[in-house]
Design a protein that fits this description.
Blueprint (H helix, E strand, L loop, with lengths): L10 H19 L6 H7 L4 H7 L3 H12 L13 H9 L3 H7 L1 H11 L4 H4 L9 H15 L10 H18 L4 H16 L4
Length: about 200
Amino acid sequence: MTIKKTPRRRGKELENALLTAAWEEFQEKGYNKMTMEGIAARAHTTKTVLYRRWPKKSVVLIMAFRKFGPEIRMEPTDTGSLRQDLFNLLSGPIKGFKVLGEETIRGLVAEQIGDHISDLFEGMMTPESNFRKRILVILKQAEKRGEVNLSQLSDRAITLPILMYIDEVLTTGFLTDESLKEIIDDILIPVLTKGE
């Protein structure tokens, strides 16, 4: 009797198997109970193979979420209101937060503080980041409507929506529609419209 060997998976095939296993493990057990051992076993491989790609479960889950979670769209809108445009842009990730759940977001934030925090907020703060460019699109539209005066806004004021977004997630471990509305109404609108 010949034993049929399973072909060794490599590259994208192996990565897909690992991410599929991570997503299934998360769906079944939740973030706190999912383990690297469980992901590896589900993918029919070893922990070493998994750790070669990703250093901890938070990174694996972020990658699995990017592959299997809902698409997070953060595109500028032109509703005729700075307040609504800010809300539309900044609320994009809330859909993902709801899918992952508060416990998971808090766990991800706790584990990511340090070397891999950039995985959560990848490229948000750089001057050339798409997120910053989208904020500028909204502010330029608001300027045309007379809601803001861009020449009166410092670079810090322009990046304030990004900073407040990151601060809320790091401080509370979550983001809701209600907390975002408070940030916009109590902080962003007064700062961004001060010159008008």
